[in-house]
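Postdoc handover notes: sequence design on the structure in folder B. Input tokens:
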């Protein structure tokens, strides 16, 4: 076929190249996640006087494939690059990172602090990958994760649906807990 295309006039060769189809075995299907996830951003560094909490909270993007996650991760700011008093959230789609959201209303959170910006970036990436990869034993109990940048120390918080869920609480005490996974 290549020799046939080379003998045709240039305009026809370009049209022939455009109409060629790629075999199904060559095309790559995206790697779907178990559920959709949404990035949120909240910048409280310059609050408007009298503004209610959450008015600066913005939905950034919802994704459901591994490829979309990496495209977003590569293009967005890392938590260490955010201004003080900014929060970056990754929550299951349909759940807003607010305690008023019905999925979070009876929930709680597990927090870990970091005095090093690079530590926050590492914890953020590893926690996001564990969430979207469904690596937590009680994955259905987790709403999302928040990276909070503050002047004195940064914080990573894992939000849960049910603060009274003993299975989730006990799981945090095991060797796989967030505090034992990270050196801060």
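Designed sequence:
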């Amino acid at each position: 076929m290549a020799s046939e295309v080379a003998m045709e006039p240039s305009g026809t060769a370009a049209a022939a190249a455009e109409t060629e189809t790629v075999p199904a075995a060559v095309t790559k299907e995206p790697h779907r996640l178990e559920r959709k996830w949404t990035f949120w951003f909240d910048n409280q560094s310059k609050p408007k006087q009298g503004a209610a909490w959450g008015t600066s909270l913005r939905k950034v993007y919802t994704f459901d494939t591994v490829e979309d996650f990496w495209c977003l991760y590569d293009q967005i700011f890392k938590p260490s690059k955010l201004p003080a008093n900014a929060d970056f959230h990754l929550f299951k789609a349909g759940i807003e990172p607010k305690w008023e959201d019905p999925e979070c209303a009876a929930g709680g959170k597990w927090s870990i602090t970091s005095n090093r910006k690079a530590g926050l970036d590492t914890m953020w990436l590893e926690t996001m990958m564990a969430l979207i990869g469904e690596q937590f034993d009680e994955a259905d109990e987790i709403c999302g994760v928040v990276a909070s940048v503050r002047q004195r120390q940064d914080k990573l918080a894992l939000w849960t649906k049910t603060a009274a869920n003993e299975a989730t609480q006990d799981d945090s005490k095991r060797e796989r807990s967030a505090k034992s996974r990270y050196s801060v």
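Context for whoever picks this up: The chain has one domain: 32-181. Don't rerun without checking with the PI first.
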